[in-house]
# Entry
Amino acid sequence: MINLKAELKDVSSIKSDALVMFIPSDDKSNKSSKRKLENLLGKSISPTSIKDVTGKAGETTVLYTPDIFASKRIILTGIGESEKVNLEYIRRAGAVAAKKAQGLKLSSIAYILDIFDNSDLKLDDSLEDISCAIAEGAALGIYKFPTYFSDEEQKSNPLQSATLIAHTKKNLKEIERGVKRAAIISEGVYLARDLGNTPGLDLYPETLAAIARNECRKAGCKVTIFDEKKIESLRMGGILSVSKGSEQSPRFIIIEWNGGKRTEKPHVLVGKGITFDTGGISIKPSANMGEMKMDMSGAAAVIGAMKAAAMMKLRVNLIGLIPACENMPSGKAIRPGDVIRIMDGTSVEVDNTDAEGRLILADALVYAKRYKPKAVVDLATLTGACVVALGHYATGMMGNDENIIEALKAAGNRSYERVWELPLYDEYEKLIKSDIADVKNVGGRWAGAITAGWFLKKFVDNYQWVHLDIAGTAILEESGDYTQKGASGVGVRLLIEWLRTV
# Structure
């Protein structure tokens, strides 16, 4: 991952392949920024050479500096209208500049931040938060997954470092805190993206568990892994039934971070860990089935968030629970019409074996009861219905506690991993009523994301709980400013932003 750092330096003495300056688009601020640029560069620049720099979001212009500068280029990066600028605009601008530098095959850039500390641009956000957004954009914008490339150029990542420049000692401390936070969070997102992008041939329950153990132990977490024999002893029928058709045996992963008081109840994060989903006997269409290597994106988010929380030493007790299986068709696979029992004894009629994620999450939600949790949040690429409803721009959210729902909304708005609440009205429950068992695992054509949420609700004890359906936000069809086609790593930044406030 790119090296992120902060320094206190005069602009002319900064050694990097390019400086980055942000330019607003509204007339007054745009002219003011250009005047400062002219004063900075002196006679080496003429007003006509920057006349067409509009400052529109996403726009970049490369200028070359006079010989007295240690850096030879300036990348002017538009951030849009001053009044509309927020952390997301800044995050995107940080990414756009980094990607421009990457395209020029530069190895280092330095962001000039004084625009955020003068009359041209006044934001309610702290310089720490602004710095974190810029650094996140830089790191996440140039993410690559080069593991399977043979060509060295495709494997390489030219941009190696990004420095955020402070102009006072006071500012330096704030910027350092923001950069440090961004570096840790980005490392968690990188881990989640790498896991999601890894093919099922190489990532299956056993290897997912091994990576979770290695990565989270390094950060200071305790990791326990249950094998199939232990899962059987716990009578986790959801996990056992889903994995029956696969040659790969299941795992149940428990990650613990104790950063709070010993007597403090933990927050529990639950992540769906289907390492590949064919749909089982209810097999999926072949088109785009390869994306189902990312059906463990909920698990990836929990692993990434747990690692980041430990590295940040968050003062909270945190448990990560990951049921990990592979859903395959075979002579041993569970069939539509079969009845299974979840860990708490609830009988479930399996009407569709492609609705397997809720079966393994049910076991995990039951297991979570033993921690007497303060709150439980589960993340899962659970339903195509949620993608139909919200597309790829918002995560579906359901739950039984308005305080957590509102806190996650606020965290989603700040991280731009936005969530949107769907109702769990009592009337929806009848859609998953079974004629032969306690509950059915699908509810028919209508309200598919909600009936999946209602199914999970049946296995929630009296604890506070929120379900996040990340089917649309975890698997992307196209790249954005700081996201790439494929696994987005969604959930890591959202969870950390929320956990920082609990």
